[in-house]
Amino acid sequence: MNDLCADIGYKSINHYGEELCGDHIEIIEGEGGSTVIVLADGLGSGVKASILSTLTSKIISTMISAGLPIEECVSTIAATLPVCSERKVAYSTFTIIHLKDNETADIIQYDNPHVILVRDGENYDYPTTEMNIDGKKIFKSTVYLREGDTFVAMSDGCPHAGSGNSYNFSWKREDIIGYMEALIAGEYTAKNLSTMLVDECEKLYEGQPADDTTACVVRIRKREPMNVLFGPPLNRDDADRMMSLFFSKEGKHIVCGGTTSSIAAKYLGKKITVSTNFEPGGLPPISYIDGVDLVTEGVITMNKVVEYAKDYLGENQHFEHWNFKKDGASLICRLLFEEATDINLFVGRAMNPAHQNPNMPINFNIKLKIVSELTDCLKKMGKRVKVSYF
Fold this sequence. Notes:
Layout: E1 4-13, E2 23-29, E3 34-42, H1 46-65, H2 70-80, E4 92-100, E5 104-110, E6 116-119, E7 122-123, E8 129-133, E9 136-144, E10 150-154, H3 173-184, H4 190-204, E11 213-222, E12 225-230, H5 239-248, E13 252-256, H6 258-268, E14 273-274, E15 287-288, E16 294-296, H7 299-313, H8 319-324, H9 328-339, E17 342-347, H10 364-380, E18 384-389
Helix pairs in contact: 1-2, 7-9, 7-10
C-alpha cells in the first residue's frame, strides 16, 4: 500500500430534448483499497438508453468488485439486457477502470472512445491487449500508477461534439487530448476537469447536444490531511485539550468562528488581525493568526461552503466562483475540495451567546446540520472524514 489516492469526478449532459441521460457512471469502493469505476453508454438515447446503461454499469461494477473475470461479466450483460424492439439488439458500451490499492489500474473497454491517460503533462500510449468475448471486441490494459496520472474516460458524445455544425465537423480524439493536457497542467480537481470538458462539448453542440455526453476523470495524487476547527467546546475546561489535539494534527489548519479563533489565538499566544478587504457576496471578512492557515467567520461562512459543496456534487455551476474569489467560503472550498483528501473536523458544542439574538435565529442544531451535510458531501467527493465533538 502506498500514500496515493484517486480523485474521481464526472459530469453528463442529456441528448437535446431528452429528460433522461443515456449514459451512466457507477463507482464502487471495494475492500482492500479497490475501486471500480464504470462508464456505460446505452444504445440510443432517452429512457431505453438510460435503462441499458444503468443496468450495465451496476451489474459490471458489482461483478468486477467481487473479483469475477471480465468474460463472465460480458456474458452476464449479454444475457441480462433487454432487447431493443426497433434495432433488435441489446447492448450498452462500457469503460471500466479498476484501481487496485492505488498501485495499478486495469482498464477494460468495449466500443467507447478509448481512455486518455495524461502522464507528466503529455498523452501516454499505454499498451492494450485485444480480447474476443461472445463476439465482442474487448480491449484490456494494466497500468502501473504514478502520482499525477490522469485518466479521462468518455462516452462517444465527446468526440462527436459539434458534428454537423458549420464551424466544426467533429472534435477529434487528438483535439480532446490537447485540450485536456492544457487543463490538467492547471491542477484542477477531477470534478472540475470533467465539468470543463463536458461544458466545452456543450458549446460545440451550440447548446443542443446531438448525443448524451459524459466525461469521467480520475486523478492519482498523494494523500493530503486537512484540519477544521468549528466552534468552542461545551466545557471551557476542554479548550486547551481541544486546541492541543487540533494543532498536533499533520496538515493545514482552518479555524472557523469568532470565539473559536480567539481561543486559538490565546492558545498559540498570537494576535488576531482582521482583514480590511471585503469581498463581494456579503460574507464576513477573514482574519489572520500566525500559525493558522485560514481563519474565517463561523456559521454564515460554513453554510455557504455547504451550498457550494452540494452544487459541486451536482451540476458544478458555481466552481468558477469559489475557484477564484477570496472570501472565507471560497478559500475553504479550495482547501477542502481541491487539496484535502483526509479531513479532521473538530466541532465545539458550546452555544454562541451572539446567536441568542432573536433577530439571528442560529442555534447549535443548525451548526450540527451544517456539519452533518458538509461531512456527507465531503464523503461523496471521496474524502476520508473524521468528526470529533467537544
